[in-house]
Specification:
The chain has 168 residues and is mostly beta strands. The protein folds into 2 domains: 5-87, RimM (Elongation Factor Tu (Ef-tu), domain 3), CATH 2.40.30; 98-161, SH3 type barrels (Roll), CATH 2.30.30. It is built from 2 helices and 13 strands, in the order ββββββαβαββββββ. It has helices at 70-75, 98-101; strands at residues 5-15, 20-25, 39-40, 46-47, 50-56, 59-64, 80-84, 105-108, 113-122, 127-132, 140-143, 151-153, 158-161. The strands form 2 sheets. A 7-stranded antiparallel beta sheet has the order 4-3-7-1-2-6-5. A 6-stranded mixed beta sheet has the order 11-10-9-8-13-12, with no helix packed on it. A hairpin with a 2-residue loop joins β5 (50-56) and β6 (59-64). It is elongated, with a radius of gyration of 18 Å. The two termini are 31 Å apart.
């Protein structure tokens, strides 16, 4: 997927038998996903219209153009949805789209390379940067807080980290 698009949600299955689908939104305001249309899948399929009709257990219920049966909706389960970056709001200086962080080099305050951001995760409390790098047998989850990550330099393509003792 190109850098011109950002993941904003995913299909999580059908809702009912009339073609409505459940969508997990990754947006700060979950309902805003409908404003970022058209939405795209990784294989290039596009959805020009998303009409939200309700909510159910951590997902939005929506009518999406081209999805008319339960089978259509079920076939899209697990498929990610992307929006054009130009349709998304500009962020303040201290906020970042996860897609912009993935792949950045992570160095400590002394300049030693710790690795690269593999993914950004959130298990409820705060964002965690999953770091994979040289000498690491497994990935390391670095808290994405101002204390642990004092500097994010998108232009230079790196993050300066001050990880808690013993993390690396």
């Amino acid at each position: 997927m190109s850098n011109d698009r950002v993941i904003v949600g995913s299909f999580v299955g059908a809702f009912g038998v009339r073609g409505e689908t459940r969508i997990k939104s990754f947006c700060a305001d979950p309902a805003a996903i409908a404003e970022y249309t058209p939405l795209y899948t990784e294989d290039g399929r596009s959805f020009a219209t998303v009409v939200l009709t309700g909510q159910a257990k951590g997902a939005l219920i929506a009518r999406v153009d081209g999805i008319v049966t339960k089978e259509d909706a079920d076939a899209l389960k697990g498929v990610n949805l992307f929006a054009d970056r130009s349709h998304l709001p500009n962020l303040p200086d201290d906020e970042y789209y996860h897609a912009d962080l993935i792949g950045l080099e992570v160095v400590d305050t002394g300049g030693t390379v710790l690795g690269h951001v593999k993914s950004v995760q959130n298990h409820g409390a705060a964002d965690l940067l999953e770091i994979h790098g040289p000498g690491l047998k497994t990935t390391v989850l670095l808290p994405f807080t101002l204390a642990a990550v004092p500097t994010v330099d998108l232009a230079a393509g790196r993050i300066i980290a001050d990880p808690p003792d013993g993390l690396f």
